[in-house]
UniProtKB/TrEMBL annotation:
Coiled-coil intervals, chain numbering: 48-82
GO cellular component, one term: cytosol
Protein name, entry field: Periplasmic chaperone for outer membrane proteins Skp
Source organism: Cecembia rubra
PANTHER family hit by this protein: CHAPERONE PROTEIN SKP
GO BP term, pick one: protein stabilization
Length: 177
C-alpha cells in the first residue's frame, strides 16, 4: 500500500514538473472600435451621403402625403356645412384612404425591413466585408483568440488602449494616418 502511494506521489510530482516547465499559451484578447474604423474609411462617407440623400427624398414624399391629408381635412372642415351627409362621408373615406396610403408608405420605406434599411445593408455590406477581412488578418497576425468591438454595446467596462487593434485594422485596409 505504501509503495503504491509513493508511486502515485512520484507520478503526480512528475506531471506537475512537466506542466510547470511546459510553455503556457495564454489566450490573447483585444478590441477594436468599429465606429472609429467606419468613420476613417472614405467609402463610409460616400455610403452615408447616399443614404442621407435617399432618406431626405423619401421624407419629402412622406411630408407631401401628410400635407395632402391636412389640406383634405381643412377643405372638409371649410365645406362641411355645404355638404350632404353622403358627400361628407365620401370625403371622410377619401381622407382615411390617404392616411392608410401614408402609413403604408412610411412602413414600406422606413419600417422594419423597409427600403431604407435594405438599401443601408446593401451599401454597407461590401465595406463591412473589407473591414472583416482586415480584422481577420490582424487577428491571425497577432494570434488573437478573441477580439471585441468597443462600439457594439456595453460589453466592455474598461479597455486598456494598448489592446486596441483598430489602428492595425486601418493599416490592413491601407488607411494609415
Amino acid at each position: 500500500m505504501m509503495e503504491r502511494s509513493l508511486k502515485l506521489l512520484f507520478l503526480f510530482g512528475f506531471i506537475g514538473t512537466l506542466l510547470a516547465w511546459s510553455p503556457v499559451y495564454a489566450q490573447k484578447f483585444g478590441y477594436i472600435d468599429s465606429e472609429f474604423l467606419l468613420n476613417k474609411h472614405p467609402d463610409y462617407k460616400l455610403v452615408q451621403n447616399e443614404l442621407t440623400s435617399l432618406s431626405e427624398q423619401w421624407k419629402k414624399e412622406a411630408q407631401k402625403l401628410e400635407q395632402e391629408i391636412k389640406e383634405m381635412r381643412s377643405n372638409l372642415k371649410a365645406e362641411e356645412v355645404l355638404l350632404t351627409e353622403e358627400m361628407y362621408q365620401e370625403r371622410l373615406l377619401a381622407i382615411q384612404e390617404k392616411e392608410k396610403q401614408a402609413i403604408a408608405f412610411n412602413n414600406r420605406v422606413f419600417g422594419i425591413n423597409g427600403q431604407y434599411y435594405q438599401k443601408q445593408a446593401e451599401l454597407l455590406q461590401p465595406l463591412q466585408s473589407k473591414i472583416f477581412d482586415a480584422i481577420d488578418k490582424v487577428c491571425k497576425r497577432f494570434n488573437l483568440a478573441v477580439l471585441f468591438d468597443k462600439a457594439s454595446g456595453p460589453l466592455m467596462i474598461y479597455s486598456d488602449p494598448r489592446h486596441d487593434y483598430s489602428e492595425f485594422v486601418l493599416q490592413e485596409l491601407g488607411l494609415e494616418k
